[in-house]
Amino acid sequence: MLIARYAVQRLRSKETIHVAKAVLGYVDRPGFLHRLTGTAKLILVGALVLAAMLTFDARLLLALSALSMVLWAVSRIKLSDLKVVLLIILTFMLLNNLLIFVFAPRYGVSLFGTEHIIVAGPGRWVLTWEQLFYQALVTLKYFAVLPGVLLFIATTPPPEFAASLNSLGVPYRFAYSVSLALRYIPDVQRDYETISIAQQARGLDASRKAPLGERAKNLLAVLMPLLFGSLDRIETTSAAMELRGFGSRKKRTWWSARPLRLGDWLIILASIAIVGVAIWLQYVNGGRFWNPFV
């Protein structure tokens, strides 16, 4: 009785751990991108990824980055909706740039064939405009690709995500597994919050107020029930799908599939144009790089 009363008090107090937004998943805030079919958005994402892989031309990467920013602006997706993922990406991007300079500080010089020194550091760690330009290109690739990928996930419901994958030739078993994974992310996060509150009601504090060692020990008491609960949910879902004959046929229909409209065809044509420009620049530049130092 005392435990239940304490749990209720924690839920009502300001120190309560509120159920947070999903770390990565569909955001139900209808906008321009929400109205497009998943197939058109998936083709656009594929075009952005392929174009960024094909070229290191700064002009195209800047254009693709600007396009990603425009798409984000019209999508009605807030930065706070994907705050955790964006922070992880930003950390990885900064770490990647740092490691590139530490292990290959003169790679830009070898690529562009010239050397314009900005700061003469100790040993081989010399900061040059060529190296700075190369690392700016690497950073532009993040801005050209990742916003589009995140927007596709945030503006496409998981069932439509699976239908779009299947419409492009992906086997429906794999497409449906991707849909289930995205659908379970909010469920797992919600279970974590519930188990964490229950364990705190039992006196196991896993919050920032507890010492690091104690927090790590108490965190195991949260993760183990979460792990076993997730495995039990997977088994239940697998049994339910098997009982309904999932996978018994080579093809299936999708309730969430939508026909392509004018806006979708325009997005598909723009995607083809993006890849076409990336291929054309290969011939214009004589390779993947555009050299502004010549």
Automatic annotation (TrEMBL):
Keyword Translocase attributed: no
Residues passing through the membrane, by range: 42-72, 84-104, 132-154, 262-283
Record's keyword annotation contains Membrane: yes
Subcellular locations according to the entry: Membrane
Alphabetically ordered keywords of this record: Membrane, Transmembrane, Transmembrane helix
One matching Pfam family: CbiQ
Main location class: membrane
CDD domains reported in the protein's UniProt record: EcfT
Membrane-related topology note: Multi-pass membrane protein
PANTHER family reported for this sequence: ABC TRANSPORTER PERMEASE, PROTEIN ABCI12, CHLOROPLASTIC
Annotated protein name in UniProt: Energy-coupling factor transporter transmembrane protein EcfT
Source organism: Arcanobacterium phocisimile
